[in-house]
Amino acid sequence: MKGLGFYFIVLMFFTFTAMNGQSQKVERIEIPRLEKILNNPDDRLYVVNFWATWCPPCVKEFPSFQKVSAEYDITKVKFIMVSLDFPSQIKTQLIPFLKKNNVSLYVTIMTDLDYNSWIEKVDPDWQGDIPATLVFNNAKKIRKFHPGELDEPGLRKLIDSNL
User: Can you tell me the mean pLDDT for 116-128?
Assistant: First the structure.
């Protein structure tokens, strides 16, 4: 019969493995799911960042989102990272990036590759360049679109000015 220490180690291994696997889950979304996110009636500030692993400014700003997201109460501010990587690159590019950077943010991947059919739903003036960030609270009729890269102070300012 094995001692309690053995079972504790096995339990910790499976707990760590489950937690580690959860941080690398990526939800696939299409236009209807994106519309549902963008029309969410919650009285909460949503920070939706459009990015890709192949985009150097996106990769540069990503740690700022990771760090700043930990500073806010999830009941008041929700971060959603929408990857524009190709769906065929989820296992080869996106998941390895998330693992390497120990990402705990909620990450989705847009599977509708006809960008012209949905970018106007995010912002009518958006040309599709990334990175781009949308901050909104539909209950308070707040909607701010920020094209381009954000650093930590800029991201905090964008959030705090809309809370």
Answer: 94
Give the Cα separation of 75 and 50 in Å (integer): 22
* pLDDT of 2 above 60: no
DSSP letters for 137-148: EGGGTEEEEEES
153-161: long-range pairs with CB below 8 Å, 24+: 155/47, 155/61, 155/64, 155/65, 155/68, 156/68, 156/71, 158/47, 158/133, 159/45, 159/47, 159/68, 159/72, 159/77, 159/135
Contact yes or no for 119/110 (Cβ under 8 A): no
| Complete domains list, the chain, with CATH | 26-160 (3.40.30.10)
Sequence-ordered list of residues with C-beta below 8 angstroms from that of 61, at least 6 positions apart, any chain: 51, 131, 149, 150, 151, 155
